[in-house]
Amino acid sequence: MFQMMISLMSSHRVSGVIASTAIALASTSLMAFSTSIGGSGLDSLDANEALSLESSTVQELVLRELPNGSIDLAVSLGGEMTRMRFDLHSVRGDAYQLLEQQEDGSLLEIPAGPVNTYRGTDLNWPGMKAALSIEDDGFRVLVLLEGGAQWWIEPLEGKFRGATEFDYAVYRGEDIISPEGFCGVDDSFKLPGFDLSDPRPLGQDREVLLAEFVADTDFEYYQNYGSSSAVENRINSLMNSINLLYESQHEIIHEVQGIVVRPNSNDPYSSNSIETRLEQVRSVWNSTNNPPHDVVQLFSGQSFSGSTIGLAYVGAVCSNFEYSVVESDCCGSFGCATDLSNHELGHNWGADHCQCPNNTMNPSLTCANNFSADSQGDIATFRSSIENCLDEVTGACCTSTGQCAQVSEAICDNADGTYQGDGVDCDDVSCQDTSGACCLASGNCVNNQSDDDCTSAGGTFQGEGSDCSSVNCPQPDPEGACCLADGQCLDDQTEVACIGLSGTWQGDSTDCAFVNCDNPSSFVEMHHAIVGTNLLSGGQANWTVDVFAAVGQGNRVDAVAGNSVQQKLISSSSGFYQDANGGPTSMDVNPNFYAFVPDLEWDSRVTIGALDVSGNPFDSNNLGNVGINWTSFENGGTLAVDNGTWYVLPTDAQGEAQLFTSQDCSEQYGVLLARLTAFELNSTISLDALIQGRSGSGDTWQDSVSYTFGYESTEDCNENGVADDCDIANGNSQDQDGNGVPDECDTGDCPGDVDGDNDVDVDDILIALGNFGGSGSGDVDGDNDIDVDDLLAILGAFGSEC
């Protein structure tokens, strides 16, 4: 007997909304103008909630139709631009039918809509495969990258207020929030295995096999989409993405023989029990073979009783149990809808559940769209056992040497050949070695490209028989952000182009997301505060200073970096003190050792916010670093970095701006970046760096800084970490006699002489009485309050002269 897989409870949750999230709707028609991409003003949190995502970006996207019939889409994936080219790719069989149920229950074939499914890639991204499909509300894209990473694109219009037809959500597969449903299964109901005849293991060069697929839908599903054409486009869209995954991981194609649309409530699916509905599907389709089918899935709009959202028989393709049911739109995103169908079809293809939270056949829906190695093995074994039932999909493949081989499209692609089409025979084609090297606009070179493909990708064909090993592709001018006079920012501009627009070029690889064109240099103002002079136990003159980035109240610093454009340099004209018991960062300085190694407190180190490993003045220190060679700095020399950073996470408190007193006595909100001890009092210290942080509203910024300063004599008699002259200037200390020494430190040789006129008289008593109960002038004993003890001290010295 077959095993029924009761799968995937629809317990919805939206949690851990991270970074920006948003999604957008696209136009159903191809735009006959240049592809555009831009940031949207939409709140990404709305998109995350609408699609049950943890993170996404909202981008304004349109499609461009190229002269050769291909379409073009430019989009940012994780901050990297890609321009994909797509060609028509039908998921339909030659005898494909669109069937509509009539009021009497019969099925009537109606005209099928145009093919709106495409496949494509970006030659600049080796190994990329993408499936694009156009539906009534916009287009949807699945992008598979080399190594298995996934990106999804889907429209937002109608998902929440303000989203337009150009607004799209772009998100990673791992950003989809799992609905965390569970599947109850009983392995005792699994169909006994077929006799296997020399099954070939997954991964060997074998043919791609085709199963005839029928998509049935119920009345509730029709109500969700409103028309037969919308249902047809949705099913085609899902099957395009499903097939891309099955082709890549299982060498299986589901060729759609028919789609059944049921616009009347008298459809044969009346129960709100998913178990009953699966049996109804089996009853309906075991009684007919029109359209022909090896596997059937019912796409349901019913919210089933209980908590299951998917159900299937295991090991059932090409049998009387080749059926599954999915509550297709249960869980928010297109990625989840795809994975739910993948999961139930996986059962039909012989895959059991696995304890694999990051994979498709996990007992609860993970929206992972990725089969584990065990699941791939299950499907490969079952696939081989029913090979005689399936159709082999091959075609002529022209190799780079001009030869022809009859293989599957996947094998042809893996061999860098040119596939001539399913069913095309080598006897009917003439393969010539017309390929060559293609220089892309990025400066990269790609081998085995035709002239047309190279030109379509925006490249320059180097000639038939050419090879990248002997071609020098011209490298493009560096591109970056350009600030225009009106405050606008343009991405991907060369310096020459920016100057031609009367703009200010922001440097190579800069991005408008991190540039403030209104006042691009206003994020950071550097300050320092000298801690003390000759604090080391050694004899060589030295001075210790704290270096701050003043960024304003409510802002924060997340990283201090150096790159090819802005090298990070910290130098002293006479070198830095480095303690053998410390290290280059605040994580290497333990204050518990100060009592044993006093000079450790003055060790030179970099940081963000926290002074030492304890986190002082914060609760903890989570500083990290990458790409930095500390050797010279640890030997007292210059710290030079052109591809590295020290950083904290945006959630770490130590990056938040705190109030400090600068050497110029101004009070600032800023973040400590370094404590440095330099040798010789005539030395100068310089710092050059790229600093990245966030504003109080969460917007990320970057700023390049260059700061040089020298030693100034300073005193801190009350040891509060602030220079005496700043204490006096800011009113934190009094200086009644004007000698530059805070009164709490200035006991002199005349105790009781409060007003500093060199005698103790009634004026001193009156000052103390006037400030009685407070602090400041009159605090003769220096205990920070003026009380009877101070009056007694003045009376004891009354009449004396100094």
Give the percentage of residues in beta strands: 25-35%
* pLDDT < 50 runs, ≥5 residues: 1-39, 194-206
Q: Based on CA inertia axes, which overall geometry fits?
A: elongated
Quaternary organisation of the protein chains: single chain
Please tell me how large the radius of gyration is: 36 Å
Proportion in helices: 10-25%
CATH class of the largest domain: Alpha Beta
Mean pLDDT: 84
Give the CATH H-level superfamily of the largest domain.
Answer: Collagenase (Catalytic Domain)
Number of helices: 13
**Count of domain modules:** 4
Computed structural class: alpha+beta
Count the strands?
Answer: 41
Enter the CATH topology name of the largest domain: Collagenase (Catalytic Domain)
Going by CATH, the architecture of the largest domain would be 3-Layer(aba) Sandwich
What is the terminal separation in angstroms? Answer: 111 Å
Largest sheet: 10 strands, mixed
What this model shows, in words?
Helices cover 16% and strands 30% of the residues. It contains 13 helices and 41 strands. Helix 12 (762-770) runs antiparallel to helix 13. The radius of gyration is 36 Å and the shape is elongated.
